[in-house]
Amino acid sequence: MKYPLIIGNWKLNGNSSMIYNFINELNQKMLNINRCKISIAPPTIYLDRVKKMTSSKIKVCAQNVDINISGAFTGETSIEMLKETGVEYVIVGHSERRIYHKEDYDYIAKKYSIIKLFNLIPVLCIGENARENATGKTEEICKLQIDTILKNQGIKAFRNAVIAYEPIWAIGTGQSATPLKIQTTHEFIRSYLAKKDKEIADQLIIQYGGSINIENAIKIINQPDVDGLLIGTASLNATVFSRIIQLVENNNKIN
Ligand code: PGA
């Protein structure tokens, strides 16, 4: 049985007072949430604080990790440090890191493998840009991004893992992909992996991310191959984020 996984990706946002108010409200509003799995991805410097404040229902997710365990790598955070802080999920391959930090496929694959090695759960973000979308290349791009992991780490690397389909043109634009486009792409991702191992493909959590809000969340989660949501902008407001979780919790989709 799969449970909807909802992660709030705060990106480079938040401060002490926002965290205090946000987590207090979220803890309170999650008291009656039992089906959904919930996680928050604050900036690295706040991981420890968020971990200490959140109830056991709310897991902590890191937005990034270095490929090295320790040493002379100024400014980085290692997987051991994340693990020690109580992090359970780590986002990898987000388009903002691919674009602004020039993270290429091999580098992302190295990060993915270190996350798996330390038994944390990778949230692998994949998805096409606007031009690729317009020219019908969505599946080709998703396949390429999955292949980088498959090539070196094999299908077993997708056991106990999350893939987030995040079309770049839908991130932070207010224009989410249509439920049909989301389902078609998620179905493609699952069937592509099922060719290697059906059981692993069936248990894989495939999230959608890109301009999710209170209005569109249910239409999206109701698609058969959508197992969760990766939420950016709408996760910065505790009332809005909690409302989305409550809607998903009370929705009667059976996975
Ligand atoms: P958004 O961001 O919800 O603001 O579109 C999603 C993401 O980048 O994870």
Automatic annotation (TrEMBL):
For this chain, the family text in UniProt reads: Belongs to the triosephosphate isomerase family.
Species this protein is from: Candidatus Pantoea edessiphila
This protein's source sits in the domain of life called: Bacteria
Q: What is this protein called?
A: Triosephosphate isomerase
Q: Which residues bind substrate?
A: N9, W10, K11, G172, S211
Q: Which keywords describe this protein according to UniProt?
A: Cytoplasm, Gluconeogenesis, Glycolysis, Isomerase
Pathway terms, separated by semicolons:
Carbohydrate metabolism; erythritol degradation; Carbohydrate biosynthesis; gluconeogenesis; Carbohydrate degradation; glycolysis; D-glyceraldehyde 3-phosphate from glycerone phosphate: step 1/1
Cellular component GO terms, alphabetical: cytosol
GO function terms (MF aspect): triose-phosphate isomerase activity
